Amino acid sequence: MITEAKGLQITGNIKPGYEQILTTEALQFIERMERHFSGRRAELLKRRKSVQEELNQGMLPDFLEETKHIRESDWTIAPLPNDLQDRRVEITGPVDRKMIINAMNSGANVFMADFEDANSPTWENCIDGQLNLRDAIRGTISFKNPNGKVYELNERTAVLKVRPRGWHLEEKHVLLDGQPISASIFDFGLYFYHNAKALVEKQSGPYFYLPKMESHLEARLWNEIFVYAQNDLRIPQGTIKATVLIETILAAFEMDEILYELKEHSAGLNCGRWDYIFSFLKKFRNSNDVIFPDRQQVTMTVPNMRAYSLLAIKTCHSRNAPAIGGMAAQIPVKNDPVKNDEAFAKVKADKEREARDGHDGTWVAHPGMVSTAKEVFDLLVPKPNQIFRKREDVHVTAQELLAVPEGTITEAGLRTNINVGIQYIASWLSGRGAAPINNLMEDAATAEISRAQVWQWIRHPKGILEDGRKITEELFHQIKEEELAVIKSEVGEETFKSGNFEESTKLFEQLIEADDFADFLTNAAYEKLS
Ligand SMILES: CC(=O)SCCNC(=O)CCNC(=O)[C@H](O)C(C)(C)COP(=O)(O)OP(=O)(O)OC[C@H]1O[C@@H](n2cnc3c(N)ncnc32)[C@H](O)[C@@H]1OP(=O)(O)O
Ligand SMILES: O=CC(=O)O
Ligand SMILES: [Mg+2]
């Protein structure tokens, strides 16, 4: 079915209820923004490619000379609204109806509803997600599971934030002049159009998390979109508040500048550690100086990761902005008390480091982890936040940000990467963007690390297992076959057949075999998604 709203063509299915989200007025609002900003988005994506070429030639990122005046002058972000003062625990999760209710009732201060890496962007997931959030904001959301259990919102719920998809993604079911529109503008635009006024009436606001930016110029584009959207819907300027994920190695050099661009709309920064690791590997894909050990060895305490999080805290606090920590990927482990205790201990240690360093809040992936994080932050952080701790003792250099973590590459690490990569893509193609795999939360960012490491280890001269074997395409294929047998025995023949494992394996192989490193696995995978 094709629905037209002036120039926009909708090629996705219009299921009952979708007409309440895809209204003519909402689509015209999106069309105006897409017409206005698509050129700039395209330029910025092109710019990413030219920066990559420079990095491929050996250029190293550094703090920018041309924006020194921003780093060295005195300014702060605009004051934060009341409901964003205390963000000690933020839970994240997909825009699934039941999970939205569970997350909002979890006891966390904030719930980040994710159209991005925890969401497989099928048309249905995206539009159902908008309907679910609309109902959540109006307090009418409910859900009944197959056993008859009814889910409804508690009286007190988490403050809602929304993460639209990143600049590199398109929404292929919505065309303007025959071309797919920006997924960021689509997710942001629909949410903002339908909910901004209702949120303001509730003494809250349209709050966002902005993913995967690679420069302050990309933050400027978001800011221009915010100004445009607020003008268009006659909502006071500065009502939108957005927290930027510092999750690319290039953005780490532009934290001040990113806060500055979004000054009136900023709600601080967050350390998106998983994408950050992925970005480091991706940006230095061709460098013989960069190779990371097994994924599990790259923790937040290795020197470069610690430098990055300390710099985020210092930068934010000097601008009166909150510095939110990141996601510990552990989730509760069912039926294994020892592993369960280990998972909780790891989350606790991670949150203690963050709170002691100066973070004002943190992320958890599962409602079962909320109280652990909350206990740590309640004990170590005075309410509502510790922005007053300016951390002037912290001095982070470019070399420290670019330091390569040491460690070993093991066969177990290689196996895990292959196993997780294939299982995650299969889950994503089945419409599930976050999955529990080997007792960890996996989403697009964590799976990207797995895929990037296998690609790099094959091509890098130091891609050598600790037992002395060079990692090659042949070894990859051998281990892949062995891991497929393991997966098959775990999930069973039937699920293996119906669960997109064949398609996922093919895609994983293509990504590994291509000499040109694909910028995002989700771009290729999206072509296969309904
Ligand atoms: C790198 C980054 O970008 S991090 C941010 C993006 N990633 C995420 O947001 C991942 C969030 N986490 C999740 O999606 C989930 O926790 C998963 C997929 C990892 C595991 O989910 P499940 O297998 O359903 O876990 P589990 O069976 O233990 O869940 C128990 C209950 O908690 C709920 N639950 C689990 N995680 C969440 C969550 N994040 N938000 C809300 N509810 C949740 C489940 O729906 C389930 O509810 P029920 O008992 O009412 O049926
Ligand atoms: O989005 C969060 C991350 O760690 O990546
Ligand atoms: Mg991320």
TrEMBL record:
Domain Malate synthase TIM barrel residues, every copy: 160-403
Chemical reaction(s) catalysed: glyoxylate + acetyl-CoA + H2O = (S)-malate + CoA + H(+)
Gene3D superfamilies associated with the record: Malate synthase, domain 3 (3.20.20.360), Malate synthase, domain III (1.20.1220.12)
Pfam families associated with the record: MS_C (PF20659), MS_N (PF20656), MS_TIM-barrel (PF01274)
EC class (word): transferase
A molecular function (GO) term: malate synthase activity
EC number: 2.3.3.9
One GO BP annotation of this record: glyoxylate cycle
Active site: R163, D443
CDD domains linked to this entry: malate_synt_A
NADP in keyword set: no
Stretches assigned to the Malate synthase N-terminal domain: 7-69
Keyword field contains Transmembrane helix: no
Domain of life: Bacteria
InterPro entries: Malate_synth_C_sf (IPR044856), Malate_synth_sf (IPR011076), Malate_synthA (IPR006252), Malate_synthase_CS (IPR019830), Malate_synthase_TIM (IPR001465), MS_C (IPR048355), MS_N (IPR048356), MS_N_TIM-barrel_dom (IPR046363)
Keywords: Acyltransferase, Glyoxylate bypass, Transferase, Tricarboxylic acid cycle
Pathway: Carbohydrate metabolism; glyoxylate cycle; (S)-malate from isocitrate: step 2/2
GO cellular component entries: cytoplasm
Malate synthase C-terminal domain span: 409-529
Family: Belongs to the malate synthase family.
Name listed for the protein in its UniProt record: Malate synthase
Organism, as annotated: Peribacillus castrilensis
